[in-house]
Amino acid sequence: MKTFLILLMLAALVGCGSKTATSGDDASDNVADTSSDALDTSASGTDATAGATDATTAAPDADASADAADTAASIHTYNGSVAAGDFITVTVDHAAGTVAWNNETTSLSGTSTFTEAADGSLVLGDDKGEFKTLYEIPGYALVAQDQKAKDGTQKSLAFAFEKEAITKADLANRTLNMMQFKNRWGGVEIMCGTSDASGTLSTTSYMPANTTGLYSEKSIPGSMFTEDAAKGVLKLTDPAKPGEDLTMFGTKSGLLGIDTPNGAVIGVNAAATPAFDPSVAGTYAMIGFEKQNEANGDYAPSDPYFGTATFVQATFTLTADGTLQNGGGKSGKLSPFKGSAFQGAGKVTQDCNGLFVLDTGEGDAAFVGFQGNTLLFASFKMLTPATTGTGGVQIPATYKYTYGVALKK
C-alpha cells in the first residue's frame, strides 16, 4: 500500500499594515512645512538641498526595515508530534537555510542546514540529526521523517503546525475527523468525534488490528485539560494513568494535534456534507511511514519494530472526481465514509463528513481526510491470520499498515 500513502496540512497567513505609523509621519511633515514657510524665501535653495539630504539618509533606514521584515517572515516555528510518542518544536529559517529542532520527550535538539530538492522537499545536511527530509507549507504546517524518535534510535513520522496558542475555548462545540498514527500496536486508528460547550471530547473509532473489538467509544472530559500559556498548548493529566500525559496543540483555523505516549493524533474539522469537494483536487507531496509484518501479541515495548519499518515519499495527483493516482500508474477512487462498511450502529456512529474510504483494489482498508491544502492517509491490511502452532503455541496474526501526511503543491 506504499503506493497510496497520503495525508494532511493547509496554509493560512494574514498580513496587515500600520495606519497609525503613516498618520504620525504625515503630522511630522505638516510641522516641518509650517516651519519652512516661516523662514525667509531666500533659504529655499538650502531647503531643497536639505530635503535631498533627508531623502538620502532616510533610504537606508527604509531598506533596513524592509530587510528586517523579510527576515522575520522567513522564520517559522512549529509545534508538533511524532508517531513514536514525542512532543517536538521545529524552527525553519529560510533566510539562513537552517532547521532547528527540540524533542522535549528525548531531550535531543540540534540545528542543520538544508537544501531544497526538485520535488520541493527540504533535505537536511546533518545525517546524524533528528530529521532528514521534510515538506513545509511555510507559516502553516510541515511533515517530516524523524530518524531519532523515542529513545533516539527509532524511525517515525512527525507532523507539526505553525505555533499558535490555543485555549480550552478552542475545543468547544467542534466536529472532528481524526487519525492516530502509531509505531506499534496496530499502527492506525480512525476516529470521529464531537465536543460540547465544556470542551468534553467524545469519539468512536475503528481499530483494524484490535482482536478484541474493532470499534470503541471514548470520552475525555474538558475539565481534565489545563492551559499551558507559556507554550500555547493544552495539557491533560489522567489520574488513572500516571506518566501518560497528553499535549494538545493546533491552530485557530482548525488543525488539531494530540501528542500521546501511544502515538500521535491529528484532527481536522469535519465537512458540512459527505460529498467529495473537487476544490481539493491537485498534486500532493507526501511523507509517510510503513511497517510490514507487524504482529499482535505480548512483546516488549523495548522492541517497537516487530516488523520492518520504512519511510515512504511520493508525489501523486487527485482529480476533481475523487480519483487518486500515483506516479506508478495505479489509481483508486474515494467514496464517503458515511454509509460505508465502517460506519453505522455498533461501528463508528458519527457521520464523519469529509472522511473518505479509498478503494485501492489491493484488499486493504484505506482512509483519506482533508483540510485545506492538507491530506491525511491511513491504510491497514491483514497478511496472515492468527493460528495455533505445535504444542498449542499461539502464533499471532501479521499485518501491514501505512500512514502519512501530504501537502498540496
Fold and architecture overview:
By secondary structure, the chain is mainly beta. It has a domain at 2-8 and 272-408: Beta Barrel (Lipocalin), CATH 2.40.128. It has 2 helices and 27 strands. The chain has a 9-stranded antiparallel β-sheet with strand order 12-11-10-9-17-16-15-14-13, with no helix packed on it. The protein has an 8-stranded antiparallel beta barrel with strand order 1-2-3-4-5-6-7-8. The relative contact order is 0.18.
Number of strands: 27
CATH architecture of the domain at 2-8 and 272-408: Beta Barrel
- Indicate the low-confidence ranges by residue numbers: 1-60, 298-305
Cα-based radius of gyration, to the nearest Å: 26 Å
**Order of strands side by side in the largest beta sheet?**
12-11-10-9-17-16-15-14-13
Give the helix tally.
2
Which structural class fits the helix and strand makeup? Answer: mainly beta
**Largest sheet: number of strands, sense, barrel closure:** 9 strands, antiparallel
The rough form would be described as globular
Q: Helical residue percent?
A: 10-25%
Beta-sheet strand percentage?
A: 35-45%
Q: What is the averaged pLDDT score?
A: 80
What series of H and E elements makes up the topology? HHEEEEEEEEEEEEEEEEEEEEEEEEEEE
Considering the chains and any ligands shown, give keywords for the structure:
409 residues, 12% helix, mainly beta, 45% strand, 8-stranded antiparallel barrel
